[in-house]
Amino acid sequence: MKPITFIFSIFAALAALPAAAGTVTLTVYERGDDVVFSAAGILDLSDFTMVSGASFGTGVDVAEGRFALGGGGTADVWRSTASIPLPAIGTAGIIGPGTGSAGIFALTDLGVDDLVDVAVAAGFTSGGSVSETLVFENQTFGSLGIFASVSADVMLTASQTYSLRVGNQFAPAVVPLPAGGLLLLTGAGALVAARRRKTT
User: Fold this and answer.
1) Coil, helix or strand at residue 14
2) DSSP string of 74-124?
């Protein structure tokens, strides 16, 4: 097989693969004196049904596993095919409002057959990325009634998974600025050295 034909075959095989299902992960962790709720990932709405627009505040119902992150506001509500309870985040009731990011992302149910609803900013494009936070300042897991550790995955539709990760072991790694700067300088130095070798 000629190299060009082989490369073309690889690209054709990759293009034929089914699109990866979307996954949005809610990560809950303590950062200093605060508790952070952070939802991030890809949201594929292709198997959801748009049901309405609604106005949302922010907050978390830790016992029921429902949440609305970000800054609140008007959102489009999309109904999933999952009629299972969301995994609990803790034992307390509703906490909020907290300090949020600018948009809106909520996982809840509006009381219709207990189907899980997803709320996102109006005009959200299916397959786009979600990134919203809600921070409860001067709080701990204990003060908010949050479990120390939870790891659960729920299929909301055939194309969308919701993952819950509660615990400080799931907190994003913090790279100190001096180390980040050193990495940047090392990379820049390597590029300069490679360029000099190429020109001489």
Assistant:
1) helix
2) EEEEEE-S--SPPPP-BSS-EE---EE-SSEEEEE--SSTT--EEEEETTP
Q: Apex CA 23: angle with CA 20 and CA 26, to 5°?
A: 165
- Residue with token string 């919203």: 132
88 is written with which tokens?
């609990």
Do 107 and 134 contact (CB within 8 A), yes or no?
Answer: no
- Confirm whether pTM is higher than 0.90: no
**What is the mean pLDDT of each successive set of 10 residues along the chain, which is 200 residues long?**
45 40 94 96 94 90 94 92 88 90 87 82 93 96 95 93 95 69 62 63
Report CA-CA distances (Å) from 5 to 1, 10, 16, 95, 106: 7, 9, 16, 59, 47
CA distance 147 to 73: 28
